[in-house]
Please model this.
Amino acid sequence: MINLDAKVPEGPLEDKWTNYRSKMNLVAPNNKRRLEVIVVGTGLAGAAAAATMGELGYNVKCFTFHDSPRRAHSIAAQGGINAAKNYQNDGDSVYRLFYDTIKGGDYRSREANVHRLAEVSRNIIDQAVAQGVPFAREYGGLLANRSFGGVQVSRTFYARGQTGQQLLIGAYQSLSRQISLGNVQMYNRHEMLDLVKIDGKARGIIARNLLTGKLERFAAHCVVLATGGYGNVFYLSTNAMNSNVTAAWRAVKKGALMANPCYTQIHPTCIPQSGEYQSKLTLMSESLRNDGRVWVPKKKEDAVAIQEGKKKGVDIAEGDRDYYLERRYPAFGNLVPRDVASRAAKVECDKGHGIVSTGKGVFLDFASAIQRYGKSAAHTQGINNPSATKIVELGEAVIKEKYGNLFQMYEKISGENPYKNPMKIYPAVHYTMGGVWVDYNLETNVPGLFALGEANFSDHGANRLGASALMQGLADGYFVIPYTVGPFLSGEIRTEKISTDAPEFAAAEKNTQDQIDKLMNVKGKQSVESFHRRLGKIMWEYCGMARNEEGLKKARKMIRELRAEFWSDVFVPGSKDEFNPELEKAGRVADFLEMGEVMILDALDREESCGGHFREEHKSEEGEAKRNDADYTYVAAWEWDENEPKVHKEHLVFENVELKTRSYK
Amino acid sequence: MSLTGLFLILFLVIHLIGNLQLLIDDGGRTFNEYAYLMTNNPLIKVISYGNYFFILLHAFQGILLWRQNASAKGQKYAVSTSNNASWASKNMGPLGLIILAFIVLHMWQFWYQMKFGGLPTATYDGLEVKNLYGPVSEAFSQLPFVIFYVVCMAFIALHLSHGFQSAFQSLGLNHKKYTPAIKFLGTAYSILVPLGFAIIPVFFFLFR
Amino acid sequence: MNLTLKVWRQKGANVKGALETYQVKANEHMSFLEMLDVLNEDLISQGKEPVAFAHDCREGICGTCNLVIDGRPHGPQQGTTVCQLHMRAFKDGQTIVVEPWRAAAFPIIKDLVVDRSSFDAIIQAGGFISVNTGQAQDGNAIPIEKDTASLAFDAATCIGCGACVAACPNGSAMLFTSAKVSHLALMPQGKVEHEKRVQKMVAQMDLEGFGNCSNTGACEVECPKEISISNIARLNRSYVGSVLSSD
Model:
């Protein structure tokens, strides 16, 4: 058993970070110049970390498989970023953000990490504003906020429906500045394929130059992974096509641990799948649930009529609609957390009330909001007794101002006008709370290997609240890792520059080359894509919104068979010595085929329902998730083994919050 | 490009006002006196040399730009489209070259004759001036010349239709309120001024 | 629907390429890229090399996809990236010509994939605000007028796809560069180093081999984020000003 020491500092919760920061070992500026750091990934966490460590004076090498750091998938985050600023005077505080996050995560995250996150959340907004991020503002010129699911305060900062884009551009610009100053050496179109360990410490990586196909060696005193989540295990997800688990997974194969892999977030508001050819799903921001009401027809025959295209949503009378979230969860209504909203949609669709041809869809309706805003706008403009059409016109204008780009995106994809007909939505895989195990320093069990952002497991427990991913990515990158890398690197100031001639580099390179050769030499019949699609189906069916023991066991068998089939019948066209996207994809799918198995094992191991992990065997009489705090208040960290992966446990200690049944009723 | 262009736009108006005197039915007296003034007044001499310089500079800049842009453009698309920009705006270079050729011919035909040619003279109130009116009415009595001039004016109109408003954009003079007005003015200018020039040969051919 | 595709195939940077013709069966709910996926699956099943094309988020925000469809960057639909373009915009039996971005500063890597690192170089030349992490004052310390912030945002929506360059008959990157200059110039935080930024970014743009702006306006029409050429005017204004006032 590996001893998983979280290294949480002593002292009261609210002082831990301040005290720790004040007393930790630092690296003097003259030594920073001699120390090299590798950062893999240029999303919010990676770009922020590389830029900030560059500013501090470290020699940073930064890697992305994209053609530019600006393409990382953080760019697609829509809704916003949380911060405990309490600008709205509505009772927000660092503690409340901490508490909401712990509760939202169904009491499966580490208290100290989450509190630190809540503390630095405020600095992130300041930093982003200073970088020129054009956040939404009120007429008085001050920052605007909106609400997100699972909380009762308005603490989400946003930039229309493109908050991730604006924050990533901010980080990208800071990174660009460090590149131009020579503090960061940027390697675009380089994919990390192996971690190099020397004397047990992470000392470098093997990366494939995607343009030439050559394997290259890069050495540093430590390695930081900021490579995102593994949602694409499911094939269909809201992740970008190229998002993958490869870098993190190769690190796991070198001894890091994959923590809580079964915690995946299924986002309730995505555009439903329209056919087999579909390559990805598109998210509709959670912010829409501020004003949209979720419903399905009360009568099954209405639902069937809609499925067959004989009726439309607007044809269903008000009394025949079941606003099931408002009915089941009156306190939070349409703004319940994501896991709750997703499961509720599944329940209705499983009962046969779905409203798209596949039966898998529910309505998100803005008609009430249009009426409400229309009346209010008419009043403001001094229009007495406005006509019904005038109210709709004014109301639609307000909705357009708030969500215009999202409505436009919906119309482009679905071909339907969401102002006139309610949106059709269905849950889809969106984010993975699980990730590489890290301690309070964001350091993995491999000394010198760190993991940030979605790539680590640390802050969201079993379910992430909306607008918290951007917060965590930037917190880790700007305000945590630049400090917490200190305790490790301060012990390395006497270490000479790491040489890529070390035998460990040669061995890792050979290992990587062998795998590429193996992939190229299968010369089978089936495309990489077809394997990925089949894996996704298994995962969604048996390890998706609801899981049970029988299904999971079956799925594990199926995945192992699929993996064997992959290695005997996959066809990778082209050659290894050139730009070859199919080869890149093949390596990634090979890793997903292993990652999927660990997810299933974790889901099997966790005999409880919590957050995004819902075991059908463990639910209350009302069908709500039932946790088992006595036996499962731990982080499950998996060690990879081809035959039988092993689980290691870090017990979670709650000293500041009381574990309660999560209720949004 | 924009500054020289704007200067030439201004010049065209002055030039048109002068030329329109050809239409006055006094056997060319007003026009000949005007032509004399233009070649003998020292202030106007300075301005006209400036003008020649600007024409050459504009052409030189244009050719330089054209060459730089051609090398920046990369390979041609298999399908070309004019859906996204006006034809004139995409062909300012070729249009400019045609216009330059026209200017050379035009200057040789009239300006050179006036300056260095042995034109017969006319005397008004004791002042002896070169009779430029003669070669003008002579040239415009021939149909090929009339067609040539009218067609060249059409090219100038196209060149101006983009050039006018483009000059303002290049100088950064773009404003929600004023840009539509500039665009309207540009369109009106690029139609009216070349039209004014084109009327002269047509008028001469038909009525003189 | 049955489609005839003429797709640009080019093995590598220094190899001659040509249009090749393929037949594809698609349906109108597919996105254009999903239609290409179908083509590629088909090619792979025949043991042939699939068409290399750049793509990632497939929701119109990452700026990776870059196809010129029938002569128009990102295809016929206004304000849309290729990944958001759906086949309902085309007719059954249509012939569609697919080419990569063409500009000297965007050399072709393979088939439809081009190298746009010249854009990164322009940003690295000055497309940022020089602030280190931790130096920031409170986010509400400087009020910013709502409309100004909104105007800055309009410029900041640039996804760096390069459609402006692809559409420009001069291969100019003025819309891209001016969008960044405008975004930062409009925010009070960005005003401080505005003039230096403009000069550096314009110089870098020339160095990368982009052409000059001749105000055709094609960029604005093809920009998937509908960024206005008024940003170019703003850049021109600042550039003239900064050249005149610099010592």
Chain C is about 35% helix and 15% strand. Chain C touches chain B through 43 residues (CB under 8 Å). Residues 230-245 of chain C form the longest helix (16 residues).
